[in-house]
Amino acid sequence: MLTDPELREIEASAVELARTAGKLLLGYFERPLHVTYKAENNRSPVTDADKASDDYLRGEIARRFPEHAVLSEESEDGADRAAAVTWVIDPLDGTTNFLNGLPTFGVLISVLEQGRPVASATFLPSVTNTEGRVVHARAGGGAFDDDVRLSLDEEEEPLRRMSAWPPYFLRMFKFGPQLRRRLGDVRSTGSAGFELAMAARGVFDYATLNNQWIWDAASGVLLVQEAGGIVLSYERAPKRWAPFERFVVEQAGESPTPAELRTWRRSIVVGKRPAVEHITSGLGFQTFPVRRLRQRISGLLRRG
């Protein structure tokens, strides 16, 4: 297990790396960029800003912590080895926003020990600081917005909640009668990491992510937990919302490899306890049997 001095060193490094990568991104912001796409119909863009941030982060982590593993959204060419400690990074979360000049994006860094988040740092642009801000945390050490400690109050019923949801959420979820007209003021920013950091800061009373990749969720769950909020994850087998503890991958060992962690996808709700408990009390998922059958057949064909 990592000691407290080791955790402090890791957190400090994560903050420094996130801040430097964020400044690097700001140098590219609103400038001409070379763009490629990872999916059809010009979806999942990747820019030279993504690549520059990715190269910097992976290089620095390898130099400072050579015994640790690294999982990056943008790179699958790293060594796939099990390690007790794994860094999970998204070098530019919200690339479409960034590409179109919308200053809602982030650099997401999370450090896992045997799948459990123990340190994180998220760089965000800021209207009050031209160099941005870093929201960060370590297990047992609290969460901070730069040097300001974060603490989520738990008022039972605010006058009007503000919440973050994914695009097309009305087609994704089913809502119990107790949730009708009680979702609050809904926002969808295009950056999951930004939304989770805002939930840790108390800007959003809660944020909901559906079937999210690990690099989008990992940095934010610890921020919310250490700020005094809760994180619930949807378990499909018993069909219930349960407290999140660690990133579990089926048929993986105690310390999942980067390739195994890359397959993790879950739905989570994070934020202030009363808001999260209220929302998850009536939140379910739409079912699309034809689509699921098509996906299963496609997966079998790929494996075959």
Number of helices: 9
- Tally of distinct domains: 2
3D shape:
globular
Strand sequence of the main sheet, in spatial order? 3-4-5-6-7-8-9
Description of the molecule:
The protein is α+β, with helices and mostly antiparallel strands. The chain is 33% helix and 29% strand. It has two domains: 146 residues, Fructose-1,6-Bisphosphatase, subunit A, domain 1 (Fructose-1,6-Bisphosphatase, Chain A, domain 1); 128 residues, D-Maltodextrin-Binding Protein, domain 2 (3-Layer(aba) Sandwich), CATH 3.40.190.80. The strands form four sheets. The chain has a seven-stranded mixed β-sheet with strand order 3-4-5-6-7-8-9, sandwiched between helices. The mean pLDDT is 90.
Quick recap:
By secondary structure, the chain is an alpha+beta fold. It has helices at residues 4-28, 48-64, 95-99, 169-172, 192-201, 214-226, 258-261, 273-280, 289-303, and strands at 35-39, 43-47, 69-72, 85-93, 106-113, 116-124, 133-138, 142-145, 148-149, 162-164, 173-175, 185-187, 206-213, 230-235, 240-243, 265-271, 283-285.
